[in-house]
Write a structure and sequence with these properties.
single chain, 248 residues, mainly alpha, two-stranded antiparallel sheet, 4 strands
Amino acid sequence: MNFSTNNDYSFLFGGTNSSNDNSGFSLNDYASIKNGSYGKLMKAYYKEQKNEGKSAKEVKEETQTKGAEYSEISSLADKFDKSVSKLLNSSSDLFALKDKTTTDENGIETTTQEYDMDSIVGALKDMAKSYNEFMSKATKSTNKNVARRAENLVGQMTEYMKSLSKVGVKFADNGTISIDEDKVKKTDVSALKRAFGGGDSMLAQISNKVSQIGTAATSAANNLKGYNKSAKYASDSTTIGNLINGQA
């Protein structure tokens, strides 16, 4: 593509004086065409694709596939964060004593304070499920930074599990975790709090690692050519991207 900086390309815009022009071009695009930078951009772009032995269409499809992958990993990291919020939230009553009233055979009611172990087990199972979903994608990521961070977390989990196994968390050879319901219910709640509740717990450290991996996946998606956060090839807001799309 070869643009002369001495030519007037205003006919491409159907008039550039209107501030409400919806043609997909902007004054910045017009300037980039006129000063030749757009032509250089196109040459550099297609030269890179040629050197990789891929057509622009193939690159676009590959970009969409990778972008969808990275966006899914980022979403699963957010899902994990939500699943642990009840466990980590200091204002949560998950580990608080609750009144429980029972009635004996004579109709006499007795109220005692007990922990809701079923709710604790349920929260732990939700956490384990979302962790497994996240790690199954992150460890297989095509982005080396994301995959490396995920594999590092797998290695760190073997250290965490020395303590977590004592409170009912099981770690399989394939890297997945599961909850031993009976063991959790037999564990002293103070030990469960140390493992899962609060910002200094082991779960908080794991959650922080997952968040970092999610951020790396988001960054990887944002760095893809013409890819945006909504998992679409940029065509609605990136006007240069519009023109590249038209060449694919």
